[in-house]
Amino acid sequence: MTTLFPTRSNGATAKPSDVVYVEPQRQVTDDTLAAMLPEAGLNTPFIADFLSAVLTHERCGRHLYRAVAGRTNNPILKRKYEQFGKETERHVEILEKLIADMGGNPSYVSPAARGVEGMDTHLLESTFLLGGSLDVMTQEMVMLDAVFVAESVDDANWTTLAKLADNLPPGNVKTQFLGAVQEVTAQEVEHLSWARDTKAMLVLLQAQSRAMTAIGAKAEELVEKVRGWLA
Amino acid sequence: MAFDPLQQKGMAVEDQLRNWSELNVEPYAKRDVDPFTRVRVILMNGIEVESILFSHQFQRMTDNIEIKQKLALSRRVEQQQQKVVNWLNPGDQTPLETTIGYEQVAVDLTAWLARNEPDPMLKQALDFALLEDFDHLYRYANLYELIGGRHAAELTGHLTEVTPGRPTFLEHRHPYDDVRGHYETHTVDPLSRLHVMTIVAAEQQTMNFYMNHGTDWMEPVARGLYAEIAQIEEQHVTHYGSLLDPLDSWLKQLVFHEYNEIYLYWSMLQQESDPRIKQIWELHLDMEIGQLQVAGDLLRKYEGVEPAEILPRELPDTPVTFEPNKDYVRTVLAEQTDLRTDGVRYVPVQDLAADHRYFAYQQTVNAGGVPSEQVIKENRTKHGREYRDETEGPHPIVELRDPEHGVG
User: Fold this and answer.
1) A66 touches chain B (CB under 8 A)
2) Sign (positive/negative) of CA torsion B165, B167, B170, B172?
3) Which residue on chain A is closest to B188 by alpha carbon?
4) DSSP per residue over B356-407, as a string?
5) Does A78 touch chain B (CB under 8 A)?
6) What are phi and psi of A27, to 5 degrees?
């Protein structure tokens, strides 16, 4: 079972600093992280922090997909969000296993992960905090944009992981890295290209149809129109 | 017995509105009330005020009508809860008597939280400010005797000692040195999160109270003392507010607020000696469970997060408890009175350079005399000694012992 929000009860750890207080028994240091992959000849603490950030982005992505799947008015978008959400949860599972197999703690939240979570939190909030001033069509586009931005970061993360895997010495860890990258990359490419293409399609659809003009239309009519998108 | 708020039915928010006569409750009798009932009323008023202010801040950050309406409904109910709780204070309880109650809250709440705080850095933050609020109680107690001729122990019931802490004139720090680090929202013990949220609300209410009641007096020394201590409360709200992890989203913070209110009403319920007031805590607990459900629904819908993902499976098994903390306070007094802050760190005063901003700031604000010293001096002049209530013996720090014998 995957963890979508590390907490004390599922083993969360973090790095302390002057500004971040972490109880002693929950503290992780670079020395502890260096014990992972001792033979790899790489900057292991950095890699552990980076993997934590990638995993956090996937976890936030799962929450994003749950949220937009629940709020979209379009059944086709909903199905896609649900599908991508399940795949994203599988990515969480893969990364958790990879980190655990390397001797790490999947519930470790690195400083980089905190930065990513901050970014993703605001991205998700952007899909609803200003929802009152947006018509339903625009709200759909904002949610789609959030998916696109999230998938862009995902794409960059997995491309980077693929390059990182190339630099690992031959062995079990490299094999696991390559396996993870192989399973996930194709889906990430699909997610990103779908978001980009769908956005273009919906923009063109609205641009080319005077009937889609939102101004003056009743909310229920707009919902009906959104429901018919892509049908 | 384990209490999981997410498994409770609670009262639907739509059913929580009360009429005016229900809000206008009969106050307690100020001379008969259990001193710790008074402090429970003061604390829970501060908790409701924080929930209201937080909700207002949140609603200014969004134009999402559904969220604003849900916030508005819960906030209206929280306002009613605040009225019921705060209206328990009787009209014959003067602002200064209420103030002594506020400082008793500050001492015994902070000390209890520190004693039960698992994180050493958060415990340090509590211990640090504990000594300052402890000193405020002593200063206000002297004001009470000076202008009212009465003893603070009539209100505190000798449950809390009255004697100097870190002297108030030494508490004035440059604003930069009141900013602290914060807990980490994933690793934090759920109890620590609740402790921090509770102390932020309590100190904020104290700050607000002094901001508004400092002008209730004709006597210049009283006005001066309120102005001076109100500034320390500003420091404390900065200090404690820094401890909250800013990583949490607005909706997560809303859920945590409701959860903390549940924890506190449940805590108050465990110890309340007044059956009528106990019923209020019970009712409000039921209401908060309903409010948590609304907050949880918003979190689920807008952020795709199940409340159970971020909340503990059950309330901490230890209720926040008001009880005497005299030995603990004396230990902290003996060990930490000379502690100061330098940026985000705590340091002994002797480690601060002579040109540190701490001293420069004090030179500025203390330049024209210090009301917190003046009140002691005036009371000594009027009564031939200052007011103390040292039930456990002489002050643990020799330099802070009373030149005369204390009374109480």
Assistant:
1) yes
2) positive
3) A8
4) -HHHHHHHHHTTT--HHHHHHHHHHHHHSS---B-TTSS-SSGGGS-SS---
5) no
6) -85, 140
CB atoms within 10 A of CB B167: 19
Per-residue pLDDT of chain A (231 residues; tens, 9 = 90+): 899 999 999 999 999 999 999 999 999 999 989 888 766 678 899 999 999 999 999 999 999 999 999 999 999 999 999 999 999 999 999 999 999 998 999 999 999 999 999 999 999 999 999 999 999 999 999 999 999 999 999 999 999 999 999 988 888 889 999 999 999 999 999 999 999 999 999 999 989 876 555 555 677 777 888 888 877
Q: Report pLDDT digits (tens) over A127-140.
A: 999 999 999 999 99
pLDDT at B137 over 90: yes
Measured between CB atoms, does B68 come within 8 Å of chain A?
Answer: yes
The per-residue pLDDT for range A207-221, each reduced to its tens digit, is 987 655 555 567 777
Mind listing the pLDDT tens digit for each residue in B271-320? 999 999 999 999 999 999 999 999 999 999 999 999 999 999 999 999 99
> Are the C-beta atoms of A127 and B62 separated by less than 8 Å?
no
Give backbone dihedrals phi and psi of B8, rounded to 5 degrees, phi first. Answer: -90, 150
The ipTM of this complex is 0.94
Interface of A with B in 22-61 (CB under 8 A): 22-24, 26
Distance CA A178, CA A173 (A): 9
Confirm or reject contact between A62 and chain B (CB < 8 A). Answer: yes
**Is B64 within 8 Å of A121 when comparing Cβ atoms?**
no
Q: Which domains does chain A have, with CATH numbers?
A: 8-228 (1.20.1260.10)
Using DSSP, state whether A21 is helix, strand or coil. strand
Interface with chain A: mutation pick from B184, B254, B313, highest number of A CBs within 10 Å? B184
Domain boundary assignment for chain B: 5-400
B155/A86 Cα distance (integer angstroms): 61
Percent helix, strand and coil across chain A, each to the nearest 5: 70, 5, 25
C-alpha closest to that of B156 among B387, B396, B395, B394: B387
| Residue B317: DSSP 8-state | S
Q: Are B221 and B143 in contact (CB under 8 A)?
A: yes
Segment B24-30 long-range contacts (CB within 8 Å, at least 24 positions apart): B24/B83, B24/B87, B25/B84, B25/B87, B25/B88, B25/B280, B26/B276, B27/B87, B27/B88, B27/B89, B27/B90, B27/B91, B27/B93, B28/B88, B28/B89, B28/B90, B28/B274, B28/B277, B29/B90, B30/B90, B30/B92, B30/B93, B30/B97, B30/B155
Say yes or no to pLDDT of B408 above 50.
no
